[in-house]
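FORM 7B - TANDEM STRUCTURE REPORT

SECTION 1: FIRST PROTEIN
SEQUENCE AND TOKENS:
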Amino acid sequence: MNKLLITLLFSSSLLSSEDVSDPFEDINRLTFQFNESLDKFIAKPTASFYSKFPTPIKKGVTNAFDNLEEINTSFNQILQGKPLTALNDISRFFINSTIGIGGIFDVGTALGLKRHEEDFGQTLATWGVPAGPYVMLPVLGPHTLRDLFGRPVSSFLSVTFHMTESDVNFGLNMIDALETRERLLEVESLLSGDKYYFVRDSYIQYLDYEIKDGLNIEDCLLYTSPSPRDATLSR
């Protein structure tokens, strides 16, 4: 995850502002500033506190939440015409949920079952649905219109969606958000210049990376260079 984020930061010169459909930029920027305020006073301090937890505990949390996404991934692999990959991913879910004690231990990877990430937004992309305009949502962050329409389907396929206790569901989602924010602490120091553009362009490239099932990270680092606007290494 962190390696991918660093790659996207350094490869942002592949994507210019003209390549992104952002007709709502003024509104998006206001929403971005609101999200930045929430992050400054709530999310980042909490994530910084969580970062001091022992690594095995944090790794177990990451594994557990990755495991909860395997059903969604498997279903979308089928919709994308990749039944063998779907079998790989559903096997990971059953192995990690049982032998891996609820996904805390990633036994599937140890057995050679590679983890993938798919959602319904990516499925729509493989069906030829255009990305549409870029939108920044309060709290939820960056999206494209295509991914916004795909979000309800992926949420329905999420294991946590079907938990009957709403407080448990809410708590798990908050822990998931905290764990994700903690992983970003290591790379956010690389951001500089116009942070709105940096976040937007990196997000669009991340979507492209996922839709194409990944790229050669080493080649990306070798053949791209940071743009003056986006890739200064200090704030």
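SECTION 2: SECOND PROTEIN
SEQUENCE AND TOKENS:
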Amino acid sequence: ELLKNPEIGEDEPSTYIEIIERKSQRLKVLIEDLFEASKMASGTIELSKQKVDIVQLLQQSLAEYNETIQTSNIHFRVANPDYPLYAFVDGQKMWRVFENLIGNMIHYSLENTRAFISIKEEKDQVIITFKNISKYELSENTDELFERFKRGDESRHTDGSGLGLAIAKSIVDLHGGALDLEVDGDLFKVTVILERLDK
């Protein structure tokens, strides 16, 4: 409506267009996440499983975020074995899990703190752990953190949909694995457990 105004100033159209573009991108993220979450809930999602090296998949996920990590003031510490750990998973879907969890660490970690990611094998399982100090006060009730759109008031100003954790958990559940949350004060810990394939 403002752009239709014939008395609009010379510099104003570009400002309005920038706002429209930003809000459209925000809406796109929300719609895509809602669509994916609804597919998960209805059980209509199909998995294309194959033997995947989880160590390599995590490294690829981190590489996608490398530029953002470098420019952030969050210091990542990654510990993983120097040999493959295999699981029978849909690589694209599991990459989405890692993407969501790494993205959360970047957006919601307290400034100038360390974020820890580790992979280890324990008996017949691959265990991936993500730990960071939250910039927002967290509820001790971890069920609330999985609830769709249930985020702290301050974090609602971010561009996410609030569905990231719920989608990540749904994907891991579909693989017969487990995604667990643990809150200890401001420490936020996510553990992903997958069944390990023999080498």
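SECTION 3: OBSERVATIONS ON SECOND PROTEIN
Residues 12-42 form the longest helix (31 residues).
The two ends are 62 Å apart (CA to CA).

SECTION 4: SIGNATURE
Preparer initials: ____
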